[in-house]
Specification:
By secondary structure, the chain is mainly alpha-helical. Helices cover 79% and strands 2% of the residues. The chain has 16 helices and 2 strands. It has helices at residues 13-43, 49-76, 86-103, 113-141, 143-146, 150-179, 192-215, 227-230, 232-242, 244-274, 281-306, 308-329, 334-370, 375-404, 419-446, 452-471; strands at residues 180-183, 186-189. The chain is globular, with a radius of gyration of 22 Å. 55% of the residues are buried.
Length: 472
C-alpha cells in the first residue's frame, strides 16, 4: 500500500500535539453538550427535564449499534492511502460542525412542544450517535498504531487529557460569561447566545480535527480483519465477557463519567440557582481543569515509576474523600464549595491523564490472550461504555431535577426555585461523585488485573511476537 512505501518519521512531539488537538476538537462539542445542553433544553426550549432524560437513554441504545458498528468498520475495511484511522477524522470535521450548530438553534423554542421534542431527538442522535461516533472511534483507536511502546502511549494519553482539559477550561470560563448576564441582581440566561457559542466551538472543533489529521502518523499497519470472522454482536459479547481488564475499565468508566458529567451538568444549576451567582461558574470550571493541567508534566513519570493502576487508585480515594466532605457539610459558601471541588479534582487528575493509556494496555492484553488484535472493536466497546455513563449521568440529571421539583422555563425566563429543589440540586452534585469515585476505586483495586508488572510483561511478549512476524 502507498502508506507502507516509505519509513514513517520517528514518534515525537508532533504526534503528541496532534493527538492533543484531536481531543480538544472532540471536547469542544462533547463538554459543551455535557455542561449546557440540558440547560438549553430546560431553560431555552422549555422542555421538561424528564424528556431530556429519555433522550439521553434512547441515544445510548442507538450507540450500542453505531459505536460497535464503527469499530468493526475501521477493523475490517481496507485502509486508505493516508491510514486506517486518520481519514475518518478528516471526513467528519464538517458534519460535526453543522449538526453541533443545529443542536443549539434557539429559534426552535418557537415550535410546539411536540416539535421541540422531535427536534431534540433528531439533532442530538445525529450529533452523538452518528457523526461524533464516526470521528471519535477512529481517533481513540489510532493511539495504538501511533506508538507501540507503553510509555509513549501514556504520553499520548496525557496529551489527550490536556486537550480535553483545555477545552473544558475554555468552555467553563467562556460559556458562563457569554450565556448569562446580571439583571437586577439575578443571573439571566440569553437564549440566542447558545447558537453563537455552538458556532464558535464547532469551528474550533473543526480546526482541531484537521490539525490532528495533519500532525499524527500511523506507524503500525494492521491487516484488515475478515468480515466473516466478526460474528456480529455475539462475537463481540464473547470478547467482552472474556476480557477481565475491559470489563473492569467499562465499569470504572461508567462510574467516572457519572461523576464528572453529572457534576458538570449540575454546575450551572448549582451556581445560578443554589448560589444565585452564575458568574462563579467560571471558578467552578477552573477548579476542575487546573489540577489536571498542573499534573500533566508528572503523570507519565508517576505512571512509569508506580504504575497507572496504582496511582489511579490513590487519586480516586482522594476525590471520594473531598466530595464526601462536600456532601456532609452542605455549605452555602461558594468559596468553600469551589475549594473542595478543586481538592477533589486534584485526586482525579492522574486518572484523567492516563485513562486512555489503560485502553491501549487492554488492547495489548487482548492480543496476548487471544492472538487477535481488535483495536477498533475494543475501543468501540469502551467508547460505548463511556456514552452509557454519559447517558446515565444525563438521565439522572434530568430525572433528578424533576424529582427534586426543579421548574423548567422557556426562553431563559427567571423562576424562583423552592428551597427543597435547591437543596436537592446540591446533594446531587456532591453525593453522586463521592459514591462514583469509590466505585472506580474498588473496580481498579479488585477487578482490573493490569498492574505495572503485568503491563510491562505484555509489552515484552508482543514486542517479541511482532519482531518474529517481521522476520518470517
Amino acid at each position: 500500500m502507498p502508506q507502507n512505501s516509505q519509513t514513517p518519521r520517528p514518534f515525537g512531539m508532533r504526534d503528541k500535539i496532534g493527538y492533543l488537538l484531536g481531543d480538544l476538537a472532540n471536547d469542544f462539542t462533547f463538554i459543551f453538550a455535557s455542561g449546557f445542553l440540558l440547560k438549553f433544553y430546560t431553560d431555552v426550549l422549555g422542555v421538561n427535564s424528564y424528556w431530556a432524560g429519555i433522550l439521553f437513554l434512547t441515544a445510548r441504545c442507538v450507540d450500542a449499534f453505531t459505536d460497535v458498528g464503527m469499530g468493526r468498520i475501521v477493523d475490517t475495511i481496507p485502509p486508505a492511502a493516508d491510514g486506517r484511522f486518520r481519514p475518518w477524522i478528516r471526513r467528519m470535521a464538517i458534519p460535526i460542525f453543522i449538526i453541533n450548530t443545529l443542536m443549539y438553534f434557539h429559534p426552535a423554542a418557537r415550535l410546539p412542544v411536540t416539535g421541540r421534542i422531535i427536534y431534540m431527538f433528531v439533532t442530538y442522535i445525529l450529533w452523538g450517535s452518528v457523526f461524533y461516533t464516526a470521528a471519535n472511534i477512529p481517533y481513540g483507536s489510532m493511539a495504538s498504531v501511533i506508538a507501540e511502546d507503553p510509555s509513549r502511549r501514556t504520553s499520548l494519553s496525557t496529551f489527550r487529557s490536556v486537550g480535553a482539559t483545555l477545552a473544558g477550561g475554555a468552555i467553563g470560563i467562556i460559556a458562563p460569561l457569554v450565556l448569562f448576564q446580571k439583571v437586577d441582581g439575578q443571573s439571566v440566561l440569553l437564549p440566542e447566545r447558545f447558537t453563537l457559542l455552538a458556532i464558535i466551538f464547532g469551528l474550533l472543533a473543526m480546526a482541531g480535527y484537521y490539525a490532528c489529521y495533519k500532525l499524527c502518523t500511523e506507524r503500525i499497519h494492521l491487516p484488515s480483519k475478515k468480515r466473516q470472522q466478526g460474528g456480529g454482536f455475539f462475537a463481540l459479547t464473547k470478547v467482552l465477557l472474556k476480557n477481565r481488564a475491559l470489563i473492569a475499565v467499562i465499569g470504572a468508566a461508567i462510574a467516572m463519567l457519572l461523576c464528572q458529567l453529572l457534576g458538570t451538568a449540575m454546575l450551572s444549576y448549582v451556581f445560578q440557582d443554589y448560589f444565585n451567582n452564575a458568574d462563579l461558574m467560571i471558578f467552578g470550571g477552573m477548579a476542575t481543569a487546573l489540577p489536571t493541567l498542573i499534573m500533566a508534566p508528572f503523570a507519565g513519570k508517576l505512571a512509569d515509576r508506580f504504575g497507572k493502576k496504582e496511582c489511579s487508585i490513590a487519586g480516586c480515594a482522594i476525590a471520594a474523600v473531598f466530595y464526601g466532605i462536600l456532601f456532609v457539610i452542605h455549605t452555602r459558601n461558594p468559596a468553600v464549595y469551589i475549594t473542595l471541588m478543586l481538592l477533589g479534582s486534584v485526586g482525579m487528575g492522574f486518572f484523567n491523564m492516563v485513562i486512555w493509556a489503560f485502553i491501549t494496555d487492554i488492547i495489548d492484553y487482548q492480543e496476548v490472550k487471544t492472538g487477535s488484535r481488535d483495536d477498533g472493536t475494543v475501543y468501540a466497546i469502551y467508547s460505548f461504555s463511556r456514552k452509557l455513563g454519559q447517558a446515565i449521568a444525563g438521565g439522572i440529571s434530568g430525572f433528578a431535577l424533576s424529582v427534586v421539583g426543579y421548574v423548567s422555563t422557556t426562553a431563559g425566563q427567571t423562576v424562583q426555585q423552592s428551597r427543597s429543589a435547591l437543596d436537592g440540586i446540591y446533594n446531587i452534585s456532591s453525593a453522586v461523585p463521592c459514591l462514583g469515585y469509590l466505585t472506580v476505586l474498588l473496580l481498579l483495586a479488585f477487578v482490573y488485573p493490569l498492574n505495572k508488572k503485568a503491563v510491562e510483561e505484555n509489552a515484552r511478549i508482543l514486542a517479541q511476537r511482532h519482531g518474529q512476524q517481521k522476520t518470517d
